[in-house]
Write a structure and sequence with these properties.
Blueprint: E1 4-6, E2 9-11, E3 20-25, E4 30-33, E5 36-38, E6 42-47, E7 52-59, E8 62-64, E9 69-74, E10 76-78, E11 81-84, E12 86-92, E13 95-97, E14 103-106, E15 108-109, E16 112-114, E17 117-119, E18 126-129, E19 135-137, E20 140-142, E21 149-152, E22 159-161, E23 164-166, E24 177-180, E25 187-188, E26 191-192, E27 204-206, E28 209-211, E29 216-219, E30 224-227, E31 234-236, E32 239-241, E33 255-258
Parallel strand pairs: 1-4, 2-5, 3-6, 4-7, 5-8, 6-9, 7-12, 8-13, 9-14, 12-15, 12-16, 13-17, 14-18, 16-19, 17-20, 18-21, 19-22, 20-23, 21-30, 22-31, 23-32, 30-33
Antiparallel strand pairs: 10-11, 24-29, 25-26, 27-28
Amino acid sequence: DNVSIENLVLIGNRSNFNVSAIRLNLANNSNIISNYIENFDVGILINGDISIDSNILVKGNYLLNNGYQTLRIDGSRNGNLCTSFVSNVNIADNYLSGNYHGINLFCTSNSVVENNIAVYSNISGFRIENSPYNFIRNNTFYKNRLQGMWIYSNSSNNNFSDNLILDNNQEKMPFTFDCWDPSNGLEIRYGVLNANPQKYPFLEKENGEYLFENYWCQFNGNEIELRNGVDNNIFTNNIIGDYDQTDENPIDLRIVYYT
């Protein structure tokens, strides 16, 4: 407990599997601040074999060209079920570029991810799995190869607000469309839009900014993917879409929802 790791320059060999730059297990009241971490298989890993209220700050770090577990918070699991949770972690003001994944929350609750930038990831800028009651706000997820945000497997009751999620899906997967809600219609600001490939929703432009109203859509080619039992997540004031465009109309939102 009461660990402070600050102002280190750590450069590794990514081919050394499961070697970490920084790893904390069952830690409380600790800080990981202003470190430079490059080319590790595991960049920053915070985990717990029993549920802990960790009170950990991960702030102002640079993570470049790291592997699958670049910045990962993880309790413990038995199969797909969490047996412990890490809670009360604040991940703020970090810059991630060229990693396999960006920020990952697994079996994490009551934590905050804010003011981070994750770009050029091989998979996603942000992934959350089996993690409820978290706040993800004011982040930028830009030009990641597949998803901007991957919301996966029993990650419910999270709050996503004021994030910028643009120009992901650099693989340019083909676009398909479907939308629904529990009342068999799609509620948007000016009425109900049923699933119709000719009437898919554009981002709405107000005061020079593209705004997003909350609804669920299934696309192939996506900025956000929601998969396997993710319910009651709240999305507000996020800017989501494809900004690289030549025509005046914004490109589709590209949100994927799987049951």
